[in-house]
Design a protein that fits this description.
By secondary structure, this protein is of the alpha/beta class. It has 6 helices and 11 strands.
Length: 211
């Protein structure tokens, strides 16, 4: 199990540690990320010897600077996944660009996206939801929500069945992605997705593989 205060802790880059600890705590060797709703902490995510990601209407948010200055907003299920993403792409913490990170929990909602869209009106949205099919569907849901619309997705007989504005589309499960969704439906959705390479399903899995 992980302990982030022990001598054999994973080597989180110092600039990451400094940035993320502004918006979290170390509690008994575990990272604790508070999720808030209406500026009130309602639950927490833990990463370490005990690991849990909440299903919540709250959001864990890390933003340094004025909201209108934020140019890139990174979304994920968990704060720990966003931290691990930054372990490999720490250039996003360069002080020349203002970024924000938001963890939405295990069941993201339109209401969370609507709040973030209003909070960061000038930000390009990036998703860090993992390489599995669930993460790819969530990429599509987020992109649609940002456009004030939605679609339903159903997995059946190795097909992703999509219903969008009264029209039905089928995409093979093995080739499903936001890009394929856009080509199939004719939509152009202005977000950027990030997936780990090397067959890993998440950046956290990639991060832990080194230890």
């Amino acid at each position: 199990m992980l302990s982030f205060t022990s001598s054999d802790q994973p080597r989180i880059k110092s600039e990451l540690r400094d940035f993320f600890l502004q918006f979290s705590d170390l509690e008994n060797g575990d990272w604790k990320f508070p999720y808030c709703l209406d500026n009130i902490e309602i639950t927490s995510e833990y990463w370490g010897s005990r690991s849990s990601i909440p299903s919540t209407a709250g959001i864990w948010l890390a933003a340094d600077g004025f909201p209108a200055q934020v140019r890139h907003l990174f979304l994920g299920y968990s704060a720990s996944e966003l931290l691990c993403f930054c372990q490999y792409y720490s250039n996003w913490l360069d002080t020349s660009v203002v970024v924000a990170f938001a963890a939405l929990g295990l069941l993201p909602s339109y209401q969370q996206l609507n709040f973030l869209y209003a909070q960061f009106p000038n930000a390009k949205v990036h998703t860090v939801f993992g390489a599995g099919l669930t993460g790819k569907v969530m990429d599509c849901k987020v992109a649609l929500w940002l456009g004030k619309t939605d679609a339903s997705f159903e997995i059946r007989d190795e097909l992703v069945k999509i219903n969008y504005r009264g029209k039905s589309f089928n995409i093979a499960e093995c080739s499903f992605s936001l890009n394929r969704f856009e080509k199939t439906t004719g939509l152009r959705l202005a977000i950027r997705t990030h997936k780990p390479k090397g067959g890993f399903m998440s950046y956290q899995e990639l991060f832990m593989s080194a230890f």
